Each structure stands twice: as structure tokens, then as C-alpha cells.
Amino acid sequence: MAAATELTVGQVATRSGVAVSALHFYEARGLIRSHRTSGNQRRYGRDVLRRVAIIKVAQEVGISLAEIGEALASLPEGRTPTREDWNLLSTAWRDQLDQKIAQLKKLRDGLTDCIGCGCMSIDRCPLRNKEDRLSAQGPGARRLLVTR
Amino acid sequence: MAAATELTVGQVATRSGVAVSALHFYEARGLIRSHRTSGNQRRYGRDVLRRVAIIKVAQEVGISLAEIGEALASLPEGRTPTREDWNLLSTAWRDQLDQKIAQLKKLRDGLTDCIGCGCMSIDRCPLRNKEDRLSAQGPGARRLLVTR
DNA sequence: TTACAAGCTCAACTTAACTTGAGGTCAAGC
DNA sequence: GCTTGACCTCAAGTTAAGTTGAGCTTGTAA
Questions:
Q1: What is the pLDDT of residue A37?
Q2: Between the CA of residue A59 and those of A3, A115, B103, what are the distances in Å?
Q3: Do B12 and B49 form a contact (C-beta atoms < 8 A)?
Q4: For chain B, N or C: smaller number of CB within 10 Å?
Q5: Is B101 within 8 Å of A105 when comparing Cβ atoms?
Q6: For residues B89 and B52, what is the distance between their CA atoms, to the nearest angstrom?
Q7: In the prediction, which pLDDT does A96 show?
Q8: Considering only residues 9 to 68 of chain B, which have any Cβ-Cβ distance to chain A shorter than 8 Å?
Q9: CA at A4, C1' at C16: how many angstroms apart?
């Protein structure tokens, strides 16, 4: 079957660069979808490649799978997403990115200030104070995605 | 004992804003150190507050405990670290921060480009290609710290 | 001197995002 | 028709950074 539109897991894996197990995982999480052959094997439409691409990019930016899932859920159910649909996602995430960059900059400047000030008095350290306002969170492992 | 230099875990916890369990954990990881009373209770020198502050700031910047541990290990063993010692750390971490910011910017700009270009051809997407060069990592859970 | 808060240890649990493995099925080439 | 590689499911393991809990000891204020 030369130019079949359907892709197997293995094909999606090689073309997208993510492991088969990860694709299974994304599907279980509802991030991608497949239908099955009579022999119970997954078959994917071509747009799954774009979805996976988006997933990876968003992850790299530090967006969690849960958030990505929500965003992807906003895509139209029936039809293949249009360029407009994708644009909405991109724009939203670009804003998140901008915020993240701004936050890191603030942190960097704080660090720079600390070098200047010597800052041996922990109680008055601008970084510490900034950080104190952020404390008091729930249990379990927080901060679980590194923007590498 | 009014102005004792020694601090208990509880005191360090309240003053630094991290849980007692976290302090135990840091100590097990070798990030901080204590000595024990005759009754086997921990006592900390005052500089532990500064260490903990540094740990938290570095984490916020997205540095893993392992890396922080290495950096802290570079501090002088015997004497209380001088301002110079801390400066070395700060500078190194500021550089990391700068890199991280640059990376995020590149990603954001790539995303913006993608909006412009429509980018329906995944294979030629600048984001995907950039990301492909970064793939092929070890097993287990990577990307484990979010810069919130 | 007796409560009771604060400490101690050690094991098990948590979350995210997957991977690994066992045990079994499907499909395609020779 | 059979072997081999790709698939399938489901359970359990992994990492980071802690938290939670049980069971037991310390220290201190009334």
C-alpha cells in the first residue's frame, strides 16, 4: 500500500521522534486518538503528526501534558483543525512563554542585584522575599517539569 | 538561652520557610549539615539559613538539587563562606539563567514564525527541527523541575 | 513530675511522564 | 506454513523532590 493515509504506531513513532510507548501514553491521556484495524492495531490519521509536534513543542516550553490536553481539547472534534485553529493555540502559548520569560528575567536581575549588594543579610534579600511570597503550596511533588 | 548561635530544625524551618521534612531531605542529600546534641537532635549553624536561601533561589531558576549540591560542595569546608565564595555561585547561575532565557526566546520566536508561516508541513517546521536535534535521551522521567 | 510539643528514624506514598517487561496476537515475506 | 518483526495489554519500575505516618525519644513549661 504505497500512499495510504493511515499510519501505524511505529510509523508515527519514527516520523515524530517519540517512542511508541509515549504514543500509547498520550492516547491514554486523551491527547491523541486512533481507530483500530480488525486485528486491534492502531491506525492514525496524518494530523496526529501535527498534534504530536505541538505536544513536544509545548512541553519544551514547560507546559504540562494536562494543560496541553486542555488546549488540544479546544480543537474541533469532527474536522481536521484548520490553520486558524492552530493559530489560537500558538497565540495562547506564546503569551505564556512571554510571561515565563519575564519571570526568569526578574529572577536574573534579582540575582545580579544580590551579587552587587553582598546580601549577607538573608532576611532582607530581595530574592528570598520574592520567593517567600510564593511559598505555601500543596503536598506531593510540585514543580515537576524542567524547561531544559 | 537567649541568643544562642545554634538553631533547631524547627527554627530553621520557620525562618527559611521550608518544611522540617525538606531540611531532613536536604541533609540526607548532603546539601546542608548539622551536628547533634547529646539527645541526638540536630543543631544548625547560622549559615544554614543562607544555604537554604541559595537552594531555594537556585531551584526557582530551574537548577536541580543535584546541581545545587555540586555547586555548594565547591564552597569552603572549614570556614564560613565569604562574599566572594557566594559571588562565584551567583555568577555561574546567572549565566545559566541567561542561557535559559535565550532558549525560551528562541522558542517563542519560532512559535511566532509558525503562526506566520502556517507551517502545516510538520517536517519543515523550524520548531520541530530544533527539537529533533535535542532528542535521544536516557530512560526514566526527565525534565523534572518546572520554573513556575 | 508530668504533660505535651518538638525531634528522631525509617518506610511508604505522591506526581508527572514515561519506560520496561511479560505474555500473547497479527501480518508479511520466503 | 512458518518464522520474524511489529502490535497489543497491563502491571510494575523510574526519577525528582519531598510529604506522610507510625512508633519512639527529648526537652521544657507549668
A1: 94
A2: 31, 32, 13
A3: yes
A4: N
A5: yes
A6: 14
A7: 79
A8: 17, 49-50, 53, 56-57, 59-62, 64
A9: 35
